[in-house]
Design goal:
Layout (H helix, E strand, L loop, with lengths): L14 E2 L12 E5 L9 H14 L4 E5 L3 H13 L2 E7 L7 H6 L3 E5 L3 H15 L2 E2 L8 H18 L5 E5 L4 H17 L5 E7 L4 H7 L30 H10 L3 E5 L1 H15 L9 H9 L5 E5 L4
Length: about 300
């Protein structure tokens, strides 16, 4: 992958809740806030690298299936570096980022299908048209893991040690797995214990949480007919998590936890973080706050807030 890995969205310092409005009333909890990235989510860490990788390998078009955030990020970096972008969005999804994708020059393809079917459709289009496929589960997915592993390096460098817990919202499980790999790499150098991971998602809408809570060692897909997408939970909803097995393995290896959050919980926390701490946080990201509050006592915990509202 012939790209300059140094040119990534700059890391931001850890934010201690007690240094802001102290919404959580804890001295041992830190936020890793990805909302400062150019399009406002952790997706910028992978999007810029995918666009550069596409250019390095001679592609003129990059494609992705998305619920919104990833598509906006890919379209932004494609325009920045002069690539054409094709963004597939399920037409039934309530994405607030369609106009933004169009503004960045992204060509939007909509179909009345679930997200997982859109991933398959974009993969087929990419293969037949010679496009670079940046969707999860593609041949280029290893770049996602590397890009997200930089989050761990920033956390470790800021703390000067491993936290006991890291709490992460999960959809496909890609972000959590990448963060885990970063800590694993550090652990191999220092001998320190890898943090325990707290995986958080929407009620009855994520295979990783579902499988772990039932003690399954192999990821189980969910029945798509039983999943209800809402404006709040869409970034978390999945009946097939593309990196679900990897994320599930992380939970078992690190003696982690998996928890559900309701839309009401996520929305409440998002509003309170804005009111008391001055942080604009995507409600789905706040599932990680809800989970941490249930699990963490006196241990040091870093909560990954993956995007701004």
């Amino acid at each position: 992958m012939e790209i300059d890995m140094e040119e990534k969205p700059p890391g931001r310092p850890l934010i201690k809740d007690s240094d802001l409005g102290n919404f959580l009333k804890r001295e041992n909890i830190y936020f890793k806030y990805e909302g400062y990235n150019p399009t406002g989510t952790q997706k910028d860490r992978i999007s810029e690298n995918h666009v550069k990788n596409a250019i390095a390998h001679g592609y003129d078009t990059i494609s992705v299936a998305t619920c919104g955030n990833y598509g906006a990020s890919i379209a932004y970096y494609a325009r920045k570096y002069g690539l054409h972008s094709v963004i597939g969005i399920p037409s039934d999804y309530i994405s607030a980022r369609r106009d933004e994708i169009s503004y960045y020059g992204g060509e939007i393809i909509e179909k009345p299908v679930k997200y997982e079917e859109m991933v398959d459709y974009i993969r087929e289009l990419s293969a037949s048209n010679g496009w670079y496929d940046a969707s999860p589960g593609s041949a280029n997915s290893k770049l996602d893991y590397y890009s997200y592993s930089t989050i761990s390096e920033e956390i470790y460098n800021e703390l000067g040690r491993m936290p006991e817990y890291v709490s992460v919202p999960v959809g496909n499980g890609t972000t959590m797995y990448g963060v885990y790999l970063g800590f694993k790499r550090i652990s191999m150098k220092t001998g320190e214990k890898i943090p325990s991971f707290i995986a958080n998602s929407t009620i009855n809408g994520n295979p990783i949480i579902y499988s772990f809570l039932r003690g399954y060692k192999k990821i189980r897909e969910l029945n798509p007919d039983n999943i209800q997408e809402t404006k709040i939970n869409e970034p978390l909803v999945a009946y097939r998590s593309y990196d679900g097995q990897k994320a599930l393995n992380v939970l078992y290896e690190t003696h982690g936890r998996a928890l559900y959050s309701t839309d009401e919980e996520m929305l409440y926390i998002s509003k309170e973080l804005e009111r008391l701490d001055g942080l604009s946080v995507l409600p789905a990201s706040c599932s990680a706050v809800s989970g941490a509050l249930r699990v963490v006592r006196d241990e040091t915990c870093v909560i990954l807030l993956t995007g701004r509202n």
